[in-house]
Amino acid sequence: MQIQAEMTDTFGGEANYSWVNRQRLTVKDGATDRQIVIAAKKALGITGVKAYKDWDIGDEQRYSISGACVCFFVSIVY
Fold first, then answer.
1. pLDDT per residue over 35-54, tens digit each?
2. Which residues of 41-74 are buried (b: 16+ CB within 10 A; e: fewer)?
3. Domains in the chain: how many in total?
4. Going edge to edge, which strands form the sheet with 51-56?
């Protein structure tokens, strides 16, 4: 399964996109949300950084990084 991880800055809590880091990676079919987020954080270079889920709309999730004006999105690529 292909996923895209996209990290960007925020302004007023909303994704700002003054800079962006996009990574496309492969995870095994049937991977749990936790496994997908761990793989995405590793690809983005933020392993070990605490993040919390803002929203989940099925194929896409948004996470905010605690104490920073940064968020990242994880989405399934079809």
1. 999 999 999 999 999 999 99
2. bebbebeeeebeeeeeeeeebbbbbeeeebbbbb
3. 1
4. 14-26, 2-11, 70-77, 60-65, 51-56
CB 36 within 8 A of CB 75: no
- pTM equals 0.92
Strand runs (DSSP E) across the chain, as ranges? 2-11, 14-26, 51-56, 60-65, 70-77
The domain of 65 spans 2-77
Q: What does R_g of the chain's alpha carbons equal in angstroms?
A: 12
CB-based contact 63:3 (threshold 8 Å): no
Give the torsion through C-alpha atoms of 39, 43, 49, 51, to 10 deg. -60
